[in-house]
């Protein structure tokens, strides 16, 4: 692990060491039905032992950070089927025997291969004293009777972990999340007077603002000399923005109008969430369906261009096999599909995007079926990269998740970019997807250190898909959103910061949205309103000189002059 990385995490536990300290909401059904706790570890990685007083111990002697499931405790839940949206509360009583702290990752999943997850994962720090950890999972899928399990994965580090019990209760989807006990979490650097934040805000004031000028003319195009003019920033040059859908950009509905209003009010850059992805593009196989789809995309591009909102191209190829190719085994067919789909999309888009994510998820995740692991596919990503370079002069990017987390995706992504550069396939920017969960919120100083590290191999970086999931803790989500935003805007390597959706009605993780379905802002939405709408806004009244030139200091971008609806670029 690189020495520059320090895991600055702070977790505060509301739970104590005894079950009676946890107040459980009424209405829960115990779904473990007295089934014994299981402990398993892969051969050569350690051993599992039963505790004399009940429970299980796992001794991890060989860790695998990319495959923590090599050592795991399992609580089977055979008593009932689980419906999507159900609240599943697991009470895990655990301790670690050596060191100050152990760690495990827990989730709800199907008990049988391929062990599909049915909830987000949560990471938990474990200590030397017995503690009960209340873990709430919201089922993302229905699970048939007898097929559910709560698993605790602990093979990511060398440790001796004991679990006395895992009790699992099922609650209906109508249950308010706030009613459940939970681990109270935070992060290092959250405090109001944190030195890192003061330094970052000073850098923003010094480096993100500039001495700007603009030629101001009258309606006839004549320089407006010695005139007092009001200048108001309408669109940052920096790419603040979000993933959006073409449908909501062209649809005639109240929700779509509110959706577009937020984009126009706060954002300067967007990315189509799925519309340009391979699987979505290929789904429009009938000519009339494709024509309708492309007509809507043309309208969306035009609406954005008229407002000087840039669009990122996302993406040409995903290294993890997309579902539209899951059943295809012939190498030549897959190769030609990717190359042809790349040609088609780039020919349609032309220069209407600012850059392309050529390769998405080059490292992906441990259980993914990677094209790069199949014989004959090892260089397909490079073929697509070379093809893209032959078709455009736009910047070509790599997009990956979990860059801020020490481990394989961080290390292997660094090596991947370095290898592409060495092969002459220059990576212009790294898209850092930055999907966070409350169980892993690295400090802003850690984020800045990782950014410095990647700056050694790629000149530009961007937060390409930000969101943060918390359990009924809007304040934590808002504070972390604010601090990641400040940290990244303060670093010169970043050119944009995009959320992966903003409205609950159109979001891959509705719990991470910043505006509720009724358009009331959550606390994280208030962060956008405050920082993008007010704090990082420039509005000045200045006097032009004899040549009609206005000079001022502010954020570069598109400015409105007086009451005119025409925007002028100042940078």
Summarize the topology:
Layout: E1 9-12, E2 29-30, E3 38-41, E4 46-50, E5 56-60, E6 71-77, E7 87-96, E8 102-110, E9 122-126, E10 131-138, E11 148-153, E12 159-171, E13 184-187, H1 195-208, E14 210-215, E15 228-236, E16 239-244, H2 246-250, H3 254-266, E17 269-272, H4 278-283, H5 287-306, E18 310-318, H6 331-349, E19 355-360, H7 380-391, E20 396-400, H8 408-422, E21 429-432, E22 435-437, H9 444-454, E23 460-469, H10 474-489, E24 494-499, H11 523-535, E25 539-543, E26 549-554, E27 557-561, E28 567-570
Parallel strand pairs: 16-17, 16-24, 17-18, 18-19, 19-20, 20-21, 21-23, 22-23, 23-24
Antiparallel strand pairs: 1-13, 2-12, 3-6, 4-5, 5-12, 6-11, 7-10, 7-12, 8-9, 8-11, 14-26, 15-25, 15-27, 27-28
Helix pairs in contact: 1-10, 6-7, 9-10, 10-11
| Average pLDDT taken over every residue | 92
Portion in helices: 25-40%
Total DSSP E strands? 28
| Overall body shape | globular
Rg, Cα atoms, Å: 26 Å
Instruction: Figure out the total of helices.
Output: 11
Strand order of the largest sheet: 16-17-18-19-20-21-23-24
What is the percentage of strand-forming residues?
A: 25-35%
Largest beta-sheet characterization: 8 strands, parallel, barrel
Uncertain stretches of 5 or more adjacent residues? 1-20
- Category from helices, strands and their pairing: alpha/beta
Distance between the termini: 40 Å
């Amino acid at each position: 692990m690189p020495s520059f990385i320090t895991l600055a995490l702070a977790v505060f536990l509301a739970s104590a060491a005894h079950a009676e300290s946890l107040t459980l909401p009424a209405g829960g059904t115990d779904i473990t039905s007295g089934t014994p706790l299981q402990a398993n570890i892969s051969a050569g990685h350690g051993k599992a032992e039963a505790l004399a007083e009940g429970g299980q111990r796992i001794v991890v002697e060989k860790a695998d950070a990319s495959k923590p499931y090599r050592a795991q405790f399992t609580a089977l839940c055979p008593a009932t089927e689980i419906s999507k949206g159900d609240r599943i509360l697991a009470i895990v009583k655990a301790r670690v025997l050596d060191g100050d702290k152990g760690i495990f990752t827990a989730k709800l999943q199907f008990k049988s291969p391929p062990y599909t997850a049915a909830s987000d994962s949560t990471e938990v720090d474990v200590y030397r004293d017995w503690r009960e950890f209340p873990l709430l999972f919201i089922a993302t899928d229905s699970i048939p009777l007898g097929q559910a399990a709560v698993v605790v994965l602990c093979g990511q580090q060398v440790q001796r972990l004991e679990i006395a019990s895992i009790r699992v209760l099922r609650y209906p989807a109508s249950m308010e999340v706030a009613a459940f006990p939970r681990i109270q979490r935070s992060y290092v650097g959250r405090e109001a007077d944190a030195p890192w934040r003061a330094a970052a805000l000073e850098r923003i004031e010094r480096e993100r603002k500039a001495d700007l000028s603009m030629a101001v003319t009258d309606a006839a195009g004549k320089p407006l000399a010695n005139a007092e003019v009001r200048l108001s920033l309408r669109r940052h040059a920096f790419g603040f923005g979000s993933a959006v859908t073409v449908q909501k950009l062209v649809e005639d509905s109240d929700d779509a109008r509110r959706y577009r209003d937020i984009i126009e009010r706060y954002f300067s850059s967007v990315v189509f969430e799925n519309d340009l992805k391979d699987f979505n593009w290929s789904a429009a196989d009938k000519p009339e369906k494709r024509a309708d789809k492309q007509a809507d995309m043309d309208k969306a591009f035009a609406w954005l261009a008229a407002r000087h909102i840039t669009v990122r191209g996302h993406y040409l190829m995903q290294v993890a096999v997309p579902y539209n190719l899951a059943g295809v085994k012939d190498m030549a067919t897959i190769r030609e599909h990717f190359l042809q789909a790349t040609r088609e999309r780039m020919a349609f888009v032309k220069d209407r995007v600012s850059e392309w994510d050529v390769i998405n998820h080059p490292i992906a995740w441990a259980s993914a079926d990677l094209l790069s692991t199949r014989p004959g596919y090892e260089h397909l990503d490079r073929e697509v990269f070379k093809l893209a370079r032959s078709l455009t002069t736009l910047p070509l990017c790599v997009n990956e998740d979990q860059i801020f987390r020490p481990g394989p995706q961080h290390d292997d992504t660094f090596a991947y970019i370095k290898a592409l550069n060495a092969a002459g396939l220059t990576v212009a920017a790294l898209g850092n997807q930055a999907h966070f969960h409350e169980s892993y919120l690295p400090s802003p100083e850690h984020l800045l250190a990782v950014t410095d590290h990647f700056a050694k191999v790629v000149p530009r970086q961007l937060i390409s898909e930000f969101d943060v999931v918390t359990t009924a803790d809007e304040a934590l989500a808002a504070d972390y959103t604010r601090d990641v935003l400040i940290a990244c805007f303060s670093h010169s390597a970043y050119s944009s910061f995009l959320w992966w959706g903003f409205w609950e009605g159109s979001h891959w993780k509705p719990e991470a949205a910043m505006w509720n379905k009724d358009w009331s802002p959550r606390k994280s939405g208030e962060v956008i309103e405050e920082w993008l709408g007010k704090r990082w806004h420039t509005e000045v009244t200045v006097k032009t000189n004899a040549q009609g030139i206005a000079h001022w200091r502010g954020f570069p971008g598109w400015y409105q002059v007086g009451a005119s609806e025409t925007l002028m670029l100042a940078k």
